[in-house]
Amino acid sequence: MALGDVVEWAKHQVSARVPKADLDQRDPDYIREQLPGLWLLASLYFRADVRGLDRIPTDGPVLLVGNHSGGNLPPDTFVFTLAFSSYFGVERPFYQLAHNLVVSMPGLGSLRKFGTVAANHENARLALESGGALLVYPGGDYEVFRPSWERHKVDFGGRKGYVKLARDAGVPIVPIASVGGQEAALFLDRGQWLARLLMVDRLARLKSVPILLAPPWGLAVSDFVPRLPLPTKITIEVQEAIDADDIKTADDDVIHEKVTAALQSGVDRMAAQRRFPVIG
């Protein structure tokens, strides 16, 4: 059997294990039960501070576009999901896109009850068509594994597909800026070279195999071994919405620049208020 055939077989085995997106797996009753304890944890451990939720439209579909930090255990997603559910109520449909392998990891099935689905265009389209609010991170594993000394840099790696998604769905975009997540571990290298060497970029759509320092293991290669995130202070600020009509008439580059500029401005403002890493 040729190497190409082996790669295609392995890729099929990986994709076959990704749970099919079922928006009905989101369970408002489960979220309602878990919310008080998890919000207490977020408030104590991450000293969660979420601002500007009133800038999000009160109903209807909306695309929430964030900068992303913290590796495969992103505290920004955890904190924002709890804040959104607390502010708007658990009955408002809210979904988050995550990498296939994160959705498939053993022990993380509860994420699907919170509305987490595998990141692809079809799932995103279904979530918006259902009338839900959808949180996406265009930077994906490129941004989330950036070195910690670039923690205050918004970098989508040139990805702009979210603009077309919003335009096709006829929904506004709301930028969600956050700081603190990239201090949950010390990220040393994205490891894109390692992903290519191991061929996981072709097998599992995994473009990065990061190298990081994190408790309890110390030096780690890849971020799929369970670890303890450092108790970094997470601050999130919702930026002004970009109207659906503006998105409809403008070029992708114009909207992309508007989104990333709003995010970088928010990140810079919140970063300037931090005195120390982790402590905040």
Automatic annotation (TrEMBL):
Residue ranges the record marks as coiled coil: none
Membrane-spanning regions, if any? none
Q: Which GO terms describe its molecular function?
A: acyltransferase activity
Give a GO cellular-component term.
membrane
Domain Phospholipid/glycerol acyltransferase, by residue range, is: 62-181
What single Pfam family name could you report for this chain, choosing any that match?
Acyltransferase
Q: Which SUPFAM superfamilies match?
A: Glycerol-3-phosphate (1)-acyltransferase
Indicate yes or no for the key word Iron-sulfur.
no
Task: List UniProt keywords, sorted A-Z.
Answer: Acyltransferase, Transferase
Record InterPro entries: P_lipid/glycerol_AcTrfase_prd, Plipid/glycerol_acylTrfase
Q: What's the protein called, per UniProt?
A: Glycerol acyltransferase
The scientific name of the source species is: Mycolicibacterium agri (Mycobacterium agri)
Q: What is the lineage of its organism?
A: Bacteria, Bacillati, Actinomycetota, Actinomycetes, Mycobacteriales
